[in-house]
Specification:
The complex is a heterodimer.
Chain A: E1 3-5, E2 17-18, E3 21-22, H1 33-36, H2 38-68, H3 75-106, E4 113-115, H4 124-141, H5 150-174, E5 195-197, E6 214-219, H6 229-236, E7 238-242, E8 262-266, E9 278-280, E10 285-287, E11 294-296, E12 302-305, E13 317-319, E14 325-327
Antiparallel strand pairs in A: 1-4, 2-3, 5-6, 6-7, 7-8, 9-10, 10-11, 11-12, 13-14
Helix pairs in contact in A: 2-3
Chain B: H1 2-7, H2 13-32, H3 48-58, H4 60-63, H5 81-90, H6 112-125, H7 144-154, H8 156-159, E1 166-167, E2 173-174, H9 182-191, H10 206-218, H11 234-257
Antiparallel strand pairs in B: 1-2
Helix pairs in contact in B: 2-11, 3-6, 5-6, 5-9, 7-10, 9-10
The chains are: A alpha+beta, B mainly alpha.
Chain lengths: 361, 261
Amino acid sequence: MSTTENPTEHGPEGSEKQNGFENPGLPYHRPRRADVDPKADKKAERQTAALFGVSIVGTIVAIGSYMALDMTDEIDSIRFVNMAIGIGIFLAMIGIGLGAIHWAKTLMRDHEMVEERHALRSSDEAREGAIQNLKDGAEDSGLGGVKRRPVLIGSMLTALLAAPLALLWPQIGNMGADWNISNFGHTMWRKGMRLTRDPDGTPIKASDVTIGSAFHVIPEGLNELEHHKIEEKAKAVVLLLRLDPRDLNLQPGREDWSFDGIIAFSKICTHVGCPVALYEQQTHHLLCPCHQSTFDVANGAKVVFGPAKRPLPQLPIAVDDEGYIVAQSDFHEPIGPSYWTRLHDTSDGLHADDDTEGSSH
Amino acid sequence: MNALARHRYHRAAPVVLVLLLLALIAGIAAAVSTASSAEATTATADDVTEGQKLFAANCASCHGLDAQGTDGVAPSLVGVGAAAVDFQVGTGRMPMQASGPQAIAKRPQFSEEEISQLAAYVASLGAGPAIPTAEQVDPALGDAANGMELFRTNCAMCHGSVGGGGALTQGKYAPNLWETTPTHIYEAMLVGPQSMPVFNDANIDPEGKRDIIAYLKAQDEGSPGGLRLGSIGPVAEGMWGWLVALGLIIASTVWIGARSS
């Protein structure tokens, strides 16, 4: 490999054609000011030194801030000390980087270099040697050739196949014994379970829910769960709203799922499962913050905008003897992204796909 | 274009690029952050007739002389209570300057006394939420930690995790809450103005409301994470990352690649 320093300083020498193109040669080499003017050279040197100086100052600032500044419990003082140390470290690093580049750009040689490519193909001897090495290795190890060693090969393959189990077995074991994936299509809501406030879990009376209210709801008993509390909460959260009953268009087959304008929908978006909770009381629109899917609560939470493909599942509710709001049952369709609905039809014949047509966008 | 191409190797080009970017960002930030606040008012049921006169002169054109509202224009005010009047008029949202996606907070148009008279008149039309007392909204008496839990369950989806505000649909937005007075925060929860749902005392009890106010006022201490960038979430932070950080990277790349003069 040869590196030649700018053999042709002033344009192409010969004009022989390569692949039909004329070699344009190197462009005209324009000397930098620092190359011809000793003053500019000195100036560039001073600038570089100054940049390294910035780095030195930055180091001093960082160490000095750490030692001298007093950090109290006040957020302002913590932030100030961190900021001072951070600015010091920034200057210490950037000064070195800028100085090195400035040095290279202004003072180091800037003549154009030409580095010729060498052929990619190895020599025939090297290729034959490599193949011979592989053959020798196979012969020596007993994988092939004259003296095969079947016991060694068998034991090695067994060890290789078995070893990943040491990693995988505990991982899979940790996922739990419950492999019934249809559980993912259901939540902990049951008939008669009270709707309670998130986060304290106190039950909600129908009379508490005045028109225009929005309650963030978890199932009764969720806070007492010992296992999988977060998972159950993520599936079961509900938004409980009360509209003026005149504004509420009850959906066919769901006339008795709400109570005097009080209506409950799953808070998990049917697009990719973000919590849909931006409720606009005047338009009755529920907005998902992730991808702006918008659901019309007054019309069965059908999609009026955005990428979601089906309405939010509705939780059928009723009022018990003491005036508390209770669930009539679990959701009648799987909550969240549409994936699970594709696996099986839902229990009561209310097919999850029913009102998707025309509701997207 | 040729002039631009010639100058892109100018040694000042990276600096100019960075300064332009920073100026653009500062301009956007200044345009976005406009907020107004109003003094807290303590209305006492005094002069209903004075309030009625004020109402007839300033509000009746939309809400009707008897405050019954006009279909499609303005809601009925019977039963909205003094708290709604104190919030809407006290933050300058009412009287509305122009119809739009939502009424915008501006300098209040009436004095505290006039607001309390208006509130007294509207409260006399039908029972509704009253203006909270100074003790009910005192952030010093609230528990900011509990307030945070309540805020993040009930409010953060629209107003952001620390009350920085956020966008809704069709030009509507949830306002920033840092400049809002404790009384107005309390009243907004009680009455649910405009797009905001109602959070009555059965949903978030008065102590909980005070805790939320304490949490919001605790944000005045500043953000432990450094610059807030409006606290409106990943969009603002991403914009800084992309424009500032990427701008700096591009500028230094141009500088490194440029030939020294």
